[in-house]
Write a structure and sequence with these properties.
The protein has 534 residues and is mostly helical. Helix content is 76%, strand content 4%. It has a two-stranded antiparallel sheet with strand order 1-2. The radius of gyration is 83 Å and the shape is elongated. The relative contact order is 0.13.
Length: 534
């Protein structure tokens, strides 16, 4: 049962001095020392880390500078080696080009000399050949001129004779027309294919001349040209009339007798004229026909003679051309061995020059290749030596850096061990007062057991717990160096009661939003309850 006896509570002496610190004061002092220790260790650790990193950075910068300097020297040495090798290669190339130019110039000079000798021989042969050809051409030209002149003379004579024949034909046609007959053109004969000589033409021409002369001498035919027949007939009639009148012996005209006489004479004249005309026409035909045949034969012979003259001229020109070509061929055959020998001499000289050029060029290229290979080996050896020296220097720099880094790390570990020792000792000193609170965070009270065991207090407590304070050592000790095991002998997080010192420093003020008013009142009621029940 619950004890209902009146409780006598001794009120605290508010004027009594506080000689002994309360648990709240001890905890607060311990927490302040923990924060101060954490702050000091963090600052010291940060300084230690900064110095360590700065030392490593300085060593690295020193190493990088030294390595960079070594690399720069190596690069400079490489460039100098490359430049020297390039300069030597340029000088070698200049020397090679100079020697090669000399070889080529010598070969070109020898080819020029060979070509000059060949050209001189060829020019001399050509000059002689041209002179011989000129002589042959002159003979040919003279033969052509002679043949042409002879042909032209014959043609001119033949043209003259053709004109004469044309004149004879025209004269005959004129006479025939004058004699009262219609002229007939000379019929062209087929071309004569057999050879014709001059006597044959002269014979035909003589025939034509005789016939034209005979045609001219037909005097009886002239009686029937123009008014001659009328005059003759008139004179005969007059004569008959005069004869009749004379025969009559009278002066008186006997018209009847005259008419009979004149009429009979007129009829007789007509009969005689017709008979004479027939006779004359027959004579003309017998003369004009052979004349035309003789003229046609003469013209055909003239054409044949012209063709023969043309053929003779062509044959003479052909023979002269053949003789000229034979002379030229003979001259060419005479100079061909000379020209062939000159060609052989030139080709041999050029071949020797080219062979010597190739040999000298090959020897020059061999020497240049040996020098280039020597330059390449020297350059490679220099670069390899520079690279080895640079590698050795970098190795020494790396060893020095490793030694400096080892020394820096040793100092860092020593200083960090001192800091860890200070941290452990400080935590050990602070753990005791903080560990007096045995109430873990989040613990709950067994109120039934409390009610059964609870007895009213007889005095007011020195402190009143109104809550708990969570201590997170991970956050407080963040950045603090740990032991080799990496953990301290404290929990990472624990709780201590939030206390009010009573009767001094017993004021409690809770600031909250309207939404937290009920919770704040609960905290105040809980504090008052603890004040009465603890």
């Amino acid at each position: 049962m619950t004890d209902t006896r009146p409780i006598e509570i001794t009120p605290p002496d508010l004027d009594a001095p506080l000689d002994k610190p309360t648990l709240r004061d001890v905890q607060r002092t311990a927490l302040a020392d923990l924060l101060q220790l954490s702050k000091e260790c963090s600052a010291h650790e940060a300084e230690l880390e900064a110095k360590h990193q700065q030392s490593q950075a300085d060593s690295r910068v020193k190493l990088d500078k030294s390595v960079l300097s070594a690399e720069h020297r190596l690069e400079t040495l490489h460039k100098q080696t490359e430049a020297a090798a390039e300069d030597a290669a340029r000088r070698l190339e200049v020397e090679y080009q100079h020697e090669l130019r000399k070889i080529r110039d010598n070969a070109a000079h020898r080819r020029t000399v060979a070509n000059a000798a060949y050209d001189a021989s060829k020019s001399d042969v050509k000059k002689k050949f041209d002179h011989a050809t000129w002589l042959a051409d002159s003979v040919l030209e003279a033969a052509e001129v002679s043949a042409t002149q002879t042909y032209r003379t014959e043609i001119e004579k033949q043209n003259e004779q053709a004109e004469q024949l044309a004149a004879i034909e025209a004269d005959a046609a004129h006479l025939v027309q004058k004699y009262g007959q219609e002229p007939v053109p000379v019929k062209l004969l087929p071309a004569i294919t057999t050879p014709v000589d001059k006597p044959q033409y002269d014979e035909a021409r003589l025939t034509a001349d005789k016939q034209i002369q005979a045609l001219h001498h037909l005097s009886i035919a002239r009686l029937f040209t123009g008014i001659t027949p009328l005059l003759i007939g008139l004179l005969i009639l007059i004569g008959v009339g005069v004869g009749v009148q004379y025969h009559l012996g009278t002066a008186e005209l006997n018209v009847k007798q005259l008419s009979y006489a004149v009429g009979g004479a007129f009829v007789g004249l007509i009969i005689i004229g017709v008979a004479l005309k027939v006779l004359i026409n027959t004579k003309i035909k017998k003369t004009y026909g052979p004349l035309r045949d003789a003229v046609a034969q003469s013209c055909a012979m003239l054409d044949a003679l012209a063709n023969q003259a043309k053929a003779r001229r062509a044959e003479e020109v052909r023979l002269a051309t053949a003789a000229r070509n034979a002379d030229v061929d003979a001259t060419r055959q005479r100079f061909a061995p000379v020209q062939a020998k000159a060609t052989q001499v030139r080709e041999a000289a050029i071949n020797n020059a080219e062979a010597e050029q190739q040999s000298m060029t090959a020897e020059l290229e061999r020497r240049v290749k040996e020098k280039r290979d020597e330059l390449a080996r020297r350059k490679a050896a220099q670069l390899e030596d520079a690279t080895k020296k640079s590698a050795a220097e970098r190795s020494r720099l790396s060893e020095r850096f490793s030694s400096d880094s080892t020394e820096v790390d040793a100092r860092y570990r020593e200083r960090r061990a001192d800091l860890q020792r200070r941290w452990r000792e400080g935590i050990a000193d602070i753990q005791a007062p903080i560990g007096q609170d045995e109430s873990p965070v989040g613990s709950s009270r067994d109120w039934r057991a409390f009610e059964r065991a609870w007895k009213p207090p007889t005095a007011f407590p020195a402190t009143i717990a109104f809550g708990s304070l969570a201590i997170d050592l991970k956050r407080i000790s963040a950045g603090i160096p740990r032991d080799a095991d990496g953990e301290l002998a404290l929990p990472d997080q624990f709780s201590v009661p939030a206390l009010l010192a009573f009767p001094s420093q017993a004021s409690l003020l809770i600031e909250t939003d309207p939404e937290g008013r009920e919770q704040a009142l609960g905290v105040l009621q809980m504090a008052m309850t603890r004040l009465l029940t603890q």
